Amino acid sequence: MKYIEKLHYITHDIPHLSHIEQAQQACEAGAKWIQYRSLSKSDEELLQDINAIAEICDDWGTTLIVTDHVHLNGKADIQGFHIEDMDADFIKLRKLVGHDITLGGSANTVDNLIRLVKEGADYAGYGPFAETETKPNNYAHLGIEGYQHVVKELKAQAIGIPVLAVGGIKTYDVEALMQTGIYGIAVSGAINFADDFIEAYQDFYTLVKEST
């Protein structure tokens, strides 16, 4: 079973900080898992970012995951991919990237999660917890009850996969979320738009650690 960090930090296309600057600050704050999420760049631009971020992550011992862009596997020091397409064929993806690469997927129903498990995903981002500007969508907000339900369902079916809450999570949500029994959380906007990036990351990290 692959190591999955309990706090995933996700970079984002924002005007005031480049992805490289986001990654640098996250690593300085102690991040051990960075998901590079850029859906607006050419392959050349992506690789420029990824190579620079990979060097930063290597210096800090941080895992680098890339959102989608599986075709870049082998072209940079990428430890894994997070696939946002909930209809993606993970059996095919696993054959494509091999068994050493970490593969995570997005889900918003128990059925989605079960399929990810059956097809060999290493972890799942489950959401949205609440309103989020980072990844706008029309899915119903799960709230605390949604995570209580999914943990109960997975236990009842003896299905094990690290499930991370994602989508509009604030520091004051962390304790209640972790108490549902989920594995961890993924955060982007609440850190990227905080007055103090590093302090915000460390606040989330402390809350996740204390709730584990």
From TrEMBL:
Residues that bind Mg(2+): 68, 87
Catalyzed reactions per annotation: 2-[(2R,5Z)-2-carboxy-4-methylthiazol-5(2H)-ylidene]ethyl phosphate + 4-amino-2-methyl-5-(diphosphooxymethyl)pyrimidine + 2 H(+) = thiamine phosphate + CO2 + diphosphate; 4-methyl-5-(2-phosphooxyethyl)-thiazole + 4-amino-2-methyl-5-(diphosphooxymethyl)pyrimidine + H(+) = thiamine phosphate + diphosphate; 2-(2-carboxy-4-methylthiazol-5-yl)ethyl phosphate + 4-amino-2-methyl-5-(diphosphooxymethyl)pyrimidine + 2 H(+) = thiamine phosphate + CO2 + diphosphate
InterPro entries (alphabetical): Aldolase_TIM, ThiamineP_synth_sf, ThiamineP_synth_TenI, TMP_synthase
Pathway note: Cofactor biosynthesis; thiamine diphosphate biosynthesis; thiamine phosphate from 4-amino-2-methyl-5-diphosphomethylpyrimidine and 4-methyl-5-(2-phosphoethyl)-thiazole: step 1/1
GO CC annotation, single: cytoplasm
Pfam family, one: TMP-TENI
CDD domains linked: TMP_TenI
Keywords, ordered alphabetically: Magnesium, Metal-binding, Thiamine biosynthesis, Transferase
Any single biological process term in GO: thiamine diphosphate biosynthetic process
UniProt entry tagged with the keyword Plastid: no
Classification via SUPFAM superfamilies: Thiamin phosphate synthase
Annotated ranges, domain Thiamine phosphate synthase/TenI: 10-191
Entry cofactors: Mg(2+)
EC number: 2.5.1.3
Positions of 2-[(2R,5Z)-2-carboxy-4-methylthiazol-5(2H)-ylidene]ethyl phosphate binding: 132-134, 168
Residues annotated to bind 4-amino-2-methyl-5-(diphosphooxymethyl)pyrimidine: 106, 135
Protein purpose: Condenses 4-methyl-5-(beta-hydroxyethyl)thiazole monophosphate (THZ-P) and 2-methyl-4-amino-5-hydroxymethyl pyrimidine pyrophosphate (HMP-PP) to form thiamine monophosphate (TMP).
Family note: Belongs to the thiamine-phosphate synthase family.
PANTHER family documented for this protein: THIAMINE-PHOSPHATE PYROPHOSPHORYLASE, THIAMINE-PHOSPHATE SYNTHASE
Protein name: Thiamine-phosphate synthase
Protein's organism: Pedobacter kyonggii
